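#struct-pred

JT: dropping the chains for the assembly here, can someone run the whole complex?
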Amino acid sequence: MPQYSLNVNGAKKTVDVDDDTPLLWVLRDNLQLTGTKYSCGVGICGTCVVHINGHAERSCSVYVRDAADKDILTIEGLAENPGHPIFKAWIDQEVSQCGYCQPGQIMTLAALMNENPKPTEQQIEDTMSGVLCRCGTYPRIKKAIDKLVNGEVK
Amino acid sequence: MINFEKQSRRDFIKVCSLSAGGLFLAAYVPAANIFSKPGDDPTIFSPSAYIKIDSNGIVTVFVHRTEMGQGVQTSLPMIVAEELEVNWESIRIEQADADEKYGSQSTGGSWSIRRSFDPFRVAGATAKEMLITAAAAKWGISVSDCYAENGFVISKTNGKKFSYGKLVTDAAKLPVPQNVKLKDPKDYKIIGKRVKRLDTPAKLYGTAKFGIDVVVPGMVYAAVKRSPTFEGTVISFNDAKSKAISGVLNVVQIKSGVAVIADSTWNSFKGTDALDVQWDPGPHTNVNNESIRNLFSEKLDTEGTEVEKIGNPDSVNKDSLTSLDAIYEMPFLAHAPMEPVNCVADVKANKAEIWAPTQNPQGLQRAIANLLGLKNEDVIVHVTLLGGGFGRKSHSDFGLEAAEISKAVGKPVKLTWTREDDMKHGQFRPASTHKLTGAVDKNGRAVLFSHHVIMPSIRAQLSGNSPKEPGDFDIVDGTRNLPYRIPNIKISATNVFTPVPLWYWRAVYNSQNPFIVESFIDELASAAGKDPIEFRLQMMDPESRLTNVLKLVKEKSNWNRKLPEGSGRGVAVAACYGSFSAQVAEVTVKNNRIKLDNFVCAIDCGIVINPDTVEAQMEGAIVFAITAALKGEIIIRNGGVASGNYDDYPIMDYSEMPTVETYIVKNDLPVGGVGEVGIAASTPAFINAIYNATGKRIRKLPVKLV
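RK: done, full complex below.
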């Protein structure tokens, strides 16, 4: 089996997997970074979003060979700063219910706000519509984002 | 959420009245076992199955119900903390394994708080009283000269205090007091407050452990290929291509299909894809949505079994009345939780250890014990967090598969269902057809309401018995005891057997019957030329809790405010799971595209533990119900489920979400459920709003405007 070198959350990791293995399963099964979730497996639901070279990508739909040597950030990496404004906003609004999709929601928003700290409502809607939530936390996600964009999260 | 725990009102009162004495005591660890095992920390005080207090004053609450997003890991400890008089910061929780000492652990039917409010209050109050007694003895003063506050017992005579931690050793030696006094709700400091959820940080930081995240040493990974048709069976299989995949370790046939065991989840998925199975498709290959719909339609001209009758519904003279007839149709629905079902099982010769995202740990324990020929106590079931449940995860199928595979390979196994497995091989909310007949008189009052429910019954499918007596028909839940004084009412039911596996879906029959009822009431209001709220109110008990929430939602929604062209509003009420809700939906329809604008929701659920959670549940229920109303339909084709992923069973996204305003009635009435009542009212409010906006009456879900 081929060996791949991955830069995950600032650390270099080497994995021995087939080249068609999705990054999602490398993170979850090989590196035990289980904060990145599996749900649809085909890039529809967004629960598996991670950052690759700073961009939000659906890790279920990225082959390990295409992620090799790139900078990968997972929710665990983002949470190395538990005071990140997104976490604060999510806690303030008590967003999560079951919580399963929240890493995908947060990573998706984090990538958007890294690129553009003041996204328009349309940009937010276009981006966040890509992450599904079955519990119905959308109204609170919206409130949390409004607070973040308006600089109301201390 | 689930009906199998259903109790009559009378049973509920019986449980409540027992809970201060008999039932609650059944949950006690006997005094002699307060130190549960020799060698345990002798300073741990564990006065009941639910609470443990250590010498540092840390209170551990054992949460015996499953956390699936509804907040039970926070709301149950809130109840204990209130009566125990401790700071919220000293509360920890531990998710309880399956154990009969807790009573029922089944998380469904919106029962978790309703069933636990009394026992958890008594547990907290009992522990507090024992701690006070221990302190009084140390000081040599009367118990009545002491009180408890913030984790301390304080002497009224000299102001001295002992922390709970300093008292636990003595308290543990005391007899357990009976009939302890509970707090007056007006003195509550924690119950009724917006306490932050204990499970939130871990869920945000990616450290929360769901079933799918469990890892145990030596674990292998499995996936299962199951029959594409209902009741199909394996004739033979060729595993050559599977075994050629690197990482595939083994292929074994199990009851439900063929399992591929591999060194990773991905390789187990690849292995099942490559597996060549020859299926006997079984007897149902001609079954599809249309054939099932026809089965229902054939019953439309039959009478059904009468389950409720008021007045003389069959002999109403309609000459001077405006009468209405309508047929309503509902589809099969999947639960589709974001976390597909999965389970880790480690089966050994004489014991098994299971980690499962289960809503029904004791049911799973019994099922696996039965499968393996073990005693219940030799099957340890650890309950993980659930990435959504909605009823699906109260089934034992996924746990049984994992146990069967682990036994076959002699190793711990993590079984993961793919999204497609979860969609195709689960169980479904039944489809149904409903025949409605009604009439209004010249004064605009309803004088006839007749409802024939034609639906496959979950209970009948599970038992294999056709319902005969009126009480056998679970499918009429949500149709009887209408809140409206209508002189002639008839409710009847017909069960139809189909091969589509059925199961409890959030709100069960209350996910569909109240929609039919409240839509048809809206039709009658329209026929009567009346405002939908006034039409309802004139038929309702003016003193009832339902009337109160309807009036509240009328006020809060600014019901008589003029809406812009193309917009409309609809109302509906629901009384179920011990709670009462009224909702007003506002929508805008342009070019046959529906935009959800706003939902205003009033709820009376008695004593409120955490208002933030109640609001979250109402928001969630609306998304869940409106997702189904707008998009939800499981496609049955050639005797199996054709729907496979979120592309053909879509769920509402961020851009489609309406705003939601929730107004909670404050009172001290018995605790009601909040997980499901919101489902019942939101679909009819939404559909009635579409009617108000467009004049189009939707009688078949999911909504299709063209």
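JT: nice. The longest strand of chain A covers residues 3-8. The two ends of chain A are 48 Å apart (CA to CA).
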